[in-house]
Amino acid sequence: MPLIQVLPPGLVNQIAAGEVVERPASVVKELVENALDAGARSIQVDLEEGGLALVRVADDGSGMEREDAVLSLERHATSKLRDAGGLTTIGTMGFRGEAIPAIASVARMRIDTCPDGKPGSAVGTRISVEGGDVTAVEEVARARGTTIEVRDLFFNTPARRKFMRSTPAESGHCSEAVVRACLARTDVGFTLRSGGRISIVSPAGASTEERAAVAIGREAARALIPVDQERGGVRVHGAITSPDHSAATGRGLYLFVNGRFIRDRALAWAVVRAYAGSLPAGRQPAGVLYLELPLDRVDVNVHPQKLEVRFQDARAATDALHHAVSEALRPSPWLRHAAPGASPIPAVPIAAEPRGDDVADVLSRARAAGGLSCETPPSNSSLPFPVELPRGTAQAEPPSRAVPGYFGSLRYIGPFARTYLVCEAPGGALVVVDQHASHERVLFHRLRESLRARKLEAQPFLVPPVVTLPTATARTVEGALAELAQVGLEVEPFGGDSFAVKSAPAVLGGTAMGPLLGDLAAQLAEAGTSSAVTEALDGLLATMACHAAVRANQDLTREEVRALLDGLDSIDFKARCPHGRPVVAELPIADLERRVGRR
Amino acid sequence: MELKIGIPELTRALARSQGIVEKKSTMPILSHVLLEARSTGELAVSATDLDVSVSGTHAAEVVKEGGIAVSARHLFDIVKSLAGEGKVSLKKTANNHLEVKAGQAEFRLVGLPGEDFPAMPKFEKVPFVPVEPTTVLSLVERTAFAASTDETRYNLNGVFFEPIAGLMRLVATDGHRLSMADAVIEGDFRLKKGVILPRKGISELRKLLSEAVEGAEEKPKGELGFADNSAIFRRPGVVLVMRLIEGSFPDYRQVIPKAGEKVATLGRERLLQVLRRVSLLSSEKSNAVKLELGKGNLRIAAQNPDLGEAREDLPVEYDGEPLKIGFNAKYLIDVLTVLHDADVRLELADDLSPGVVRPSGEAGEHFTAVIMPMRI
Prior knowledge:
heterodimer; A: alpha+beta; eight-stranded mixed sheet; five-stranded mixed sheet; 18 helices; 22% strand; globular; B: alpha+beta; 13-stranded antiparallel sheet; 25 strands
C-alpha cells in the first residue's frame, strides 16, 4: 500500500477552511463579498453569539438557478473566472470558488436563492448542508437574491472552536468585516444586526465621509481632509485625518486597492511619512484611502483571504499614495477658520522634483514660496487655500496678489507668560501661538528649502567604511544603488553582504555610516523608498532650527511678532513644530462665552 | 595615611587625573583618584578608566603610610580653591573618610578603600626606548587631529604608531583625510607590526609631553615602550599607560597618491588666511570651497545660496594645466594650522583624486596629508 494517499474531498475542504475560515468574521467577509459580486444593492447581516451560533447574510443580488446553487458547493466551482487569462484581470472580490464549500464543510449551512427573470413564479431553491454533506434540496418561496445562513460554525472541528475568543470579541471582528465592506462600496446599503440589535445601518449612496465616520468614529471623522490625486497611473482618493487627530495604532487607516481592503505595511508607511513629522512621535493617522489602478497591474491571487495584493510596480503605488497625502496635508487646511480672501499658497515642490541647480531659479522659487513676490512661480503644485481642493489634480494657479493667510490675518494682542503670543482671529477666536515652536518651524522650513535648493555635496572617502548588513537588506541595497547615489551616498558591493561606502553627503559629516545605511536598507525593504537620508537630514535640521529659534521667556517686539506670524503663513505644515508639537491653539469665542456664562 | 603636601604640587597632580576619570560610569571608583602615601616621602596620585591610566609621584612629608580613593573632581575643586603657596594636610580617618586641612579650612570627604582601586598595570622587562618629548609632541600634534570620532569605526579612533627602521611614524585618518608624520629615532621598540593608540590616551600623552616641553628642565626626557597590548610612556615622576585599540589599521600606504603631476607651491600662512576668510561663506556643515588652479594663480571661492559668495586670488608657483577642485575647507585649514613651515606644496591629479599637502622642501619628506576632494 502506498504511503501517499489522495485526501478525501471532505478533508480537503476542511483544510481549505483552515486557511479561508479563520473565525466567524471570515464567514461574514466571504459571504458579503459574494453578495457584492452578485450585484446586490442592499445587504443585511445578522449575527448571533458573535457569529458562532449564526451568521446570516441576505442580499438582493442576482441569485442562482438550482443547478448553479448545487454546483456552488463544489470546490473550485465559480462563475467569476473562466480561463487563466481572466486571472490577470480580476474585478470581482472572489474568484477561487473556495469559500462556500470551505464554510459548508465546517458548519451547518442553508442557502436560499432565487435568480432573476422568472416571471410569475418566485420559486427559489433551498439547499441544506451539514458538515459539507448536502442533506436536502427543496423548493422555497423567495424573492430575487440569496440568503445564506451559517449555523454552529466549527461544530465538527472542536479544536478550532476552542480557539475562538469571547462573543464580544468575535462580534467586534465581524462588524469590522462589515465596516470594511461598507467603506469599499458606498453605493451599497448595509445593515448589521448583532444579537437582534442593530449596530450598523448605512443606506446605499452614503458619502465616503459618512461611511468613514462609521469606521473611525465621529470625532476623528471631523478632522478628515479630502485626498484626490493621480500620479503614474495610480489614482488615490478618499480622506485622511489632519495631524490634530491621531491614534495609538494604525488600525484606523483603511486602505483599499481597486475596492478591496488590504493590509500593506509599505503603503501604510507611505501615508505616515507624508505627515512629515507633524504627528506626535509614535502616533498614527486614521482615514480611508482608495487606490485605483489598472487591474492587470495588481496581482490579487497572493493571500488566501486576499488581505494582501502584489503590485507590478510597488514603487509607483507607494509614491502615488505618499504624494497624494502630502499634497492634501501641505497647505495645513485643518486650521479652523478660513483666512479672508483665501490666498493661494505656492508650494515648493518636494524632493522628488528635479532639484534646481541654478541658484537664481531656486531663489526665485524660494521667494515665491515666501509669498512676497508676485511673479509666476515655476512650480505647478500650488494649492489653493484652504479646504476647497479642486477634485482631480491640483491646478497651476499663479498667486494673484499677496493676501494675508491664516497667521497674517491675526491681530496680535500681546505676549502671555513671555512664551505665548496671544492673538485675535478675524472670526472671533482667541489664538495662542507658541513663539519657540512656531519660530522653530519657520527656521526648519527655510533650512530645508535651502538645502533642497542646493545640490547635496558628496564627500568621498579616502578609506571607505565597510558596512555588513543582514542578507535580506543587503539584497535590497544592491537593488537601489542608483537611488542611493542620488542622495550622495555612493555604495559599492564589497562581496557577500558587505558594502563599501564610497561617498556620503557632506552635510552628514561625522554621522556613523553603518547605522545610517542599516536604517536606509530597512526602509528600502519595508517601504520601497529611501527616506532615511532625508530623515537624517531633517533630524539634523530640526536640531539646528531648535537651537537658532527664539526661546520661551524671550521678549519679542511687535515687529518681530508680525514677522514671525507672516513667516508662518509662507511655509508648509505650519501648525506643527518639527517635532510634531502643535504651535498654535485656538479658543473659539463661543467656548469662551460658555465659560463666562454668557451662553 | 597622613601627609602634608604643597598646594601647587597637589593641584598639578590632580589636574592630570581630570581628563582620565569617568564622570559617568557604572563603577563609582573610576570617578575617584587613588592617593597613596609612601614611606619614601612621596605621594602617588593615580587615575584610570581601565583603558588609560596615569600615575604620578610627588614629594610630600609623609607621617603615616596608606592609601585611599576619593572623588577626583571634588578633591581637585577643593584644592584649587585653596589659595596660596601653603601646604595642605591629608589624613585618612575612620570609615574611609579623607580629612583635608589647609589654614582654617577643613573638609571631610567620603572616600573608598584604596585596595578597591583597580591595580595599575605593572611592567617589568619592557624594552623602553628613550624619546625626545619635543619630537613626539610634534608628531602627535601633526596627526592626532585627523583621527576619527565616529565610534563605529573604532580602528580609526586613534593614531597608528609604526616603527620603521630608524624612524617612528604616526598616521591618523577619519576616512576622509589622512595625516602622516615621521621622525628619526634610535632604539628598538621590538614591535612586530604597527599599533593603534586610542584618542583619549593620545590626548593625555599630549598633556604630559607639553608639561615636559614647557617644564623647567633643560633637556626634557621621556621613554616609550610597548607590552601586552599596552603603550607606556614615562618620564621622571609620572607614568601613562594606555590600552591599545585592537583591530587593524587600514593600509594607509595604498591611499597616499604617488607624486601628483600638478604641483603648486604657495605660502602656508597666506593660504590659511584666505581659506579662513573665504570659508566664512561656505555652508556651515559641509564647508565646501572651490579651488581653481591656473598658471601662477589660485582662486578660492565659496558659495552659499543663503548667504552669498566669496572669492579670493592668491599667487602660486604653478605652470601646469588648469584644474578646478572642491574641498572641505576645514580639512585644509586643519593641516595648515598644525604645520609651521613657510611654504607648502599642494599636489593634485584631477578633481576626483585625493590631494596631498606637504611642507615644501626637505621637511616634505617627513609629513604628508592626504585629503579627499568634495564633489560640488
